[in-house]
Here is the input.
Amino acid sequence: MYQPVDFASPQIHLAVAGIIVVFAIPMGIHALVRWRKFRKDPAQQQTYARRRDIGIESGVAALGIIAAVVFTGMFGVGWKQSEKNLEANVETRYVVSDVVMTSWNGSTALVDLVDANGVAATGIEVSFDAVGSPVLRDAAFGLDPKHAVEHALELRQG
Here is the structure.
């Protein structure tokens, strides 16, 4: 019934990209330094084995950078898809429109939306119940009910 909302996997992809970059960039710099030194060495010290080792090191560094770029792309695509799914799930369950996610803190999201009465609501918390249904809560109304606007966050019928 509801589309999957998974913000953890994209964050794991970003962490993997970061770890790969931490190893690939120094390896690439080391290969560049070795290549420059290799070119300055006399001909009798420029062996095929050294050239091959520098090539392997350069190739591994390049593959690491490419992998990091791919994982970063996977992060971007996964995050955007989860964001769209969250917004669609909220609009499916509640009589609201123009849902826009503003932040995610690991267990809840903050969204801006227009409620059933046409009033713009900002900072509405979205959490999930045991079956994955989105649950809206107006944090401002819970903190200060005398001064906050009570928004119409009603479930859709049927």
